[in-house]
Structures are given as C-alpha cells and as structure tokens.
Design brief:
Elements (H helix, E strand, L loop, with lengths): L1 H37 L31 H36 L2 H16 L2 H11 L4 H27 L3 H8 L4 H12 L1 H24 L11 H9 L8 H32 L2
Helix pairs in contact: 1-2, 1-10, 2-3, 2-5, 2-8, 2-9, 3-5, 4-5, 5-8, 8-9, 8-10, 9-10
Length: 281
C-alpha cells in the first residue's frame, strides 16, 4: 500500500509538472503569434521622440535605443526564436534517429565506424561548431535551423543506437526477422515504436537546448540579423545599455528565454517522471 501510494503521488507530481510546462509554452506561443494581432504595433517603427523610454501606458515594455516598441519586437522575436528552435529540434531528432538506428541495426563493423565518428563529433565543443558553421552559412532562418540541427543530433544518435541495440534481440524483433522482415520494416514498426516515449521526452529537452543555443548565437551577433528581432538579439542590444539604467532592455528578453527553457524542461521532466512511474511496479 505504501509503495502504491508513493507511486500515485509521484504520478500526480509528474502530471502537474507536465501540465505547467504545456500551459507555459502555450502562453509563450500565444504571446508570440496571437499577440501581434491584439497589439497591432509595428516592430520596426521608430518613435524618435521616445528613445529609451521606460515602460509606460503607451509602450508597456518601453522602447529601445532607436525608439522601437520593445513589446512588439519581443513578440516578433518570439516567433523567430520558437520557430527556428522547433525546426532545428525536428532536424536534429530525425538525423540522430536515422544515424543511431543504422548503427544499431547494421553489421558490427558499421557500428564501430559510426560510433568512432560520433565520439569524434562529441569531443568537439558545441559552441565551437556553431560559431564555425555560422561563419560559412547564411544567417537566415533556414540557415540557422539547419546549423542548430547539424550540431544537435549526436546525443540523440547515441541514445537511438543504445535503444536499438537493446531492442534488436527481443523476441518480437527476432520473430519479424524469421518471417522475412527487412531492416527498414523492423526499424519503423518495432524499434521506433518501442523507443518512442523516450524519444518524445528527449525531444522536449532538445527544444530547450535549441532555444538556448539560438539565443546564445544571437547574443554573439551570429543569429537573426538586425533589423529583425530575436530574443537573444534583443538581449544583446540591451546588454550595452543596461549600464545607463535601461533595465527593461535585458529583463524582458531574458525573462522570455528563461520561461521558454523552463517550460520545455518542465514538460520533459514531467514526461520522464511519468515514464519512470509507469515502468516501476
């Protein structure tokens, strides 16, 4: 009874964390996409008489050094940040799953070669890779999503390979082989389905990493280029002006980045706790 009661409390806490993450992420998506239709201010409009204005009734989040509305730019920046992070996560997830399953289902020599290449990639700091590719790739939305996806897949690949190795010797996979099923059929019908819950959990953490990575690139000046807005770019712009008292230029973009990462991590932790709770007796 005590174990059952603990398990029930654990599942309730997991569900609460999961739902809070979903609600917070939906609120940020609503703010970024629906907000501009409700707050119809041009994010690029310059108000010359309101340069570096503190938050007030006309400009709820103040204005920047060019007199642009920070709230409008934060909404537009949210669209770019969340959209690029989503597509980068999808690309990294797909590439990692393909690589890991090929390594896990292939002959032993292919597994060894692919894993040595993966170890070499994992030994290179991610920030170095991002800066290198950012210097040779176009810094538009497609280029940034591709860049982040290219540096994010190795961790997913290792997870997919380990799960594939664990599943390939199970009875139902052996039975599928006995009736002539090929690697592709086994991969998408049996192995991918078996590790789907774990993949979904890691996808939420990957999304948080992509938001942080894109914000870091934009803060370094390698992300979304002006005059277009992103949360990291707004933070970069405000960092140099915070010393003169323009606190709103770093507080609100920083808060948006923090809340987005918190939402995805809460969702991931809730899903992981639910998965562990369902797996426990």
């Amino acid at each position: 009874m005590a174990v059952r009661g603990w398990s029930q409390r654990y599942m309730v806490q997991a569900a609460s964390t999961e739902y809070l993450g979903v609600v917070l992420m939906l609120a940020l998506a609503f703010f970024s996409w629906i907000g501009p239709t409700l707050y119809a201010h041009d994010a690029l409009a310059i108000h010359a008489h309101h340069i570096l204005s503190a938050p007030d009734t006309r400009f709820p989040l103040g204005t920047d050094a060019l007199g642009r509305d920070v709230l409008a730019r934060l909404m537009r920046g949210g669209q770019a940040t969340l959209a690029i992070a989503f597509w980068a996560s999808a690309l990294g997830l797909f590439a990692g799953l393909m690589y890991g399953m090929v390594a896990g289902l292939g002959p032993a020599w292919i597994d060894r070669v692919l894993m040595r290449l993966l170890d070499a990639l994992l030994a290179i700091p991610t920030l170095v890779l991002m800066i290198f590719f950012a210097a040779i790739m176009p810094l538009d939305k497609i280029g940034l999503a591709t860049l982040l996806g290219l540096v994010s897949w190795p961790g997913i690949a290792r997870l997919a390979r380990n799960e594939t190795l664990a599943a390939r010797d199970r009875d139902y996979v052996r039975a599928a082989r006995q009736v002539g099923a090929g690697h592709f059929y086994i991969a998408h019908t049996h192995i991918l389905r078996a590790m789907l819950p774990l993949v979904i959990v890691n996808a939420t953490f990957l999304m948080a990493d992509m938001i942080l990575g894109l914000s870091g690139l934009s803060f370094l000046g390698l992300g979304i280029q002006p005059p277009h807005a992103s949360w990291g770019g707004l933070l970069n712009t405000g960092a140099g002006l915070a010393v003169i008292g323009s606190w709103w230029l770093i507080v609100f973009p920083g808060l948006a980045i923090f809340l987005a990462i918190l939402a995805m991590n809460m969702l991931g932790q809730g899903l992981l706790a639910r998965l562990n709770g369902e797996a426990s007796p």
